[in-house]
Automatic annotation (TrEMBL):
GO terms for molecular function: hydrolase activity. PANTHER family: GH04784P. It comes from Photobacterium marinum. Its main location: membrane. One of its GO terms (cellular component) is membrane. It is found in: Membrane. Signal peptide: none annotated. It is a multi-pass membrane protein. This is Lysoplasmalogenase.
Amino acid sequence: MWVWLAISFSALLHITAAYNGPKWQYYLFKPFTMVLLMVVAWQSGLDGFYHQAIFVGLILSVVGDILLMLPKDRFVQGLVSFLLAHIAYSLAFWSQFEGNIIWWLPALLFAGGIIVFLLFLPSLGSLILPVALYIAVIVQMAWAAGEFWLTVGSTASVLAFAGALVFMLSDTVLAMNRFRGPLTSATAVVMTSYYLAQALFVASLLA
């Protein structure tokens, strides 16, 4: 319980600093929140492939966080880091998949991904291919988590799928803020949903 309160408080310190400063608080607590989640994941044990892949995803996410918050824009590098994180998460979820693929789920998810891509397309410029690839990978990650949930139905699978959907929301708002114009509440929405998604992935290790 206490560690989750610490994680929530750390996330809150980062989000409030994004609006009101100071800068040191903003830079410190963004990765520190993820480090706390990594500690929880580590303490859950890293014996199985699922746990190991989730932990690798958390590490790659920290790298992406650092790249995206640097004063000089490292958007593409951050995108690559999070793309690799989503691949790690996907491998974790597919490793738990049992039974036959339920095809309506990817159809629904990829249709949503195409709509989001078309929404941002006029503003992407030279980033068309990287963004298209990123959308495809995160949708595939959500598909993997969804198949895990639909075929296994465990508490861990519910947490994993919920985390994947929240992650998609976070990235959609982030892209909207970058490509469709600044949103006043973007940082609060993006970071709250981002930390929630990562926390749900870690919670799936404990279920």
